[in-house]
Amino acid sequence: MAVPKRKTSHARKSSRRSTVWKLNAPTLVICPNCGEYKVAHRACGNCGMYNGRQVIVKANEN
């Protein structure tokens, strides 16, 4: 049975695991209707448009 001869140090263990926890920032695109940044393939949070259609009705802020 394979048994390690030496204890794995904290630095070696942490450096091996360091790439597991990295997160990627979401890719943002510009909304063709209002020009705000939005996540790709999602409705725009500012104007409510998606794929040229109004999918979220936004109330007027007065």
List the helices and strands and how they pair.
Blueprint: H1 10-17, E1 28-30, E2 37-39, E3 49-50, E4 53-54
Antiparallel strand pairs: 1-2, 3-4
Task: Describe the protein in words.
By secondary structure, this protein is of the alpha+beta class. The chain has a domain at 26-62. Helix content is 13%, strand content 16%. The chain contains one helix and four strands. The chain has one helix at 10-17, and strands at residues 28-30, 37-39, 49-50, 53-54. Strands 1-2 form a two-stranded antiparallel sheet. Strands 3-4 form a two-stranded antiparallel sheet. The mean pLDDT is 88.
Outline of the structure:
This protein is an alpha+beta fold. Helices cover 13% and strands 16% of the residues.
Shape: rod-shaped
Fraction of residues in β-strands = 15-25%
Tally the helices: what do you get?
A: 1
Oligomer: single chain
Task: Give, in order, the helices and strands.
Answer: HEEEE
Radius of gyration: 23 Å
Percent of residues in helices comes to 10-25%
Biggest β-sheet description: 2 strands, antiparallel
Adjacency order of strands in the biggest sheet: 1-2
Number of DSSP strand runs = 4
User: Which structural class fits the helix and strand makeup?
Assistant: alpha+beta
